[in-house]
From TrEMBL:
Top-tier EC class: hydrolase
Keyword terms: Hydrolase, Magnesium, Metal-binding
Quaternary structure, from the entry: Monomer.
Cofactor annotation: Mg(2+)
GO CC aspect terms: cytoplasm
Species classification: Bacteria, Pseudomonadati, Kiritimatiellota, Tichowtungiia, Tichowtungiales
EC number: 3.6.1.56
GO molecular function (one): metal ion binding
Domain of life: Bacteria
Record-level GO BP terms: DNA protection
SUPFAM superfamilies in UniProt: Nudix (SSF55811)
Purpose: Oxidized purine nucleoside triphosphate hydrolase which is a prominent sanitizer of the oxidized nucleotide pool. Catalyzes the hydrolysis of 2-oxo-dATP (2-hydroxy-dATP) into 2-oxo-dAMP. Also has a significant hydrolase activity toward 2-oxo-ATP, 8-oxo-dGTP and 8-oxo-dATP. Through the hydrolysis of oxidized purine nucleoside triphosphates, prevents their incorporation into DNA and the subsequent transversions A:T to C:G and G:C to T:A. Also catalyzes the hydrolysis of methylated purine nucleoside triphosphate preventing their integration into DNA.
Source species: Tichowtungia aerotolerans
Listed Gene3D superfamilies: Nucleoside Triphosphate Pyrophosphohydrolase (3.90.79.10)
The protein, known as: Oxidized purine nucleoside triphosphate hydrolase
Amino acid sequence: MKKVTDINWNAWDPKEKATLMFIQQNNKLLLIEKKRGFGAGYYNAPGGRLEKGETWQECAIRETQEELCITPLDPQHAGTLMFHFIDGHSIHGEVFTATKFEGTPTETDEALPIWFHVDELPYHNMWADDPLWYPKMIAGEKFTGHFTFDGKTMLDYELL
Ligand SMILES: Nc1nc2c([nH]c(=O)n2[C@H]2C[C@H](O)[C@@H](COP(=O)(O)OP(=O)(O)OP(=O)(O)O)O2)c(=O)[nH]1
């Protein structure tokens, strides 16, 4: 299925569930250069797969602790992303934001922390859908995105 309208997103059953955590302070976003795993080499937010028994928010906090050695404070739910890959892979992502955190962002095996001004984001080295929904997230507007991908190539999308 290549078009987002080919998919019944209400009945869609993702193979994976994952989170993203965006720390935003003074018009800057704390991103990572992802060093390994899915999307390695891209800039992204810290995040990763939901583990059994944890909530989305607990996952977003845990992954940020694991990848950057910091603890986001008072995370807010920002949006929902659903990715369908034509090879059968699929990921449901929940996006969180926070303006405060404890600790010092530190490089780990998984991630190198880098602050970017919101007007100078490295979209050329990010997932193709990111420029579509980052502006809403930065503006604090809730969003839901549906996307079809062939590998790294975005085929179709709708943003609600
Ligand atoms: N910004 C953005 N993030 C995406 C896109 N697609 C996608 O999977 N992600 C995120 C969701 C997850 O946080 C991350 C994939 O992480 P993952 O946890 O499934 O994979 P991983 O290989 O890093 O595995 P692990 O850390 O759980 O061991 O990438 C996208 O199009 N844009």
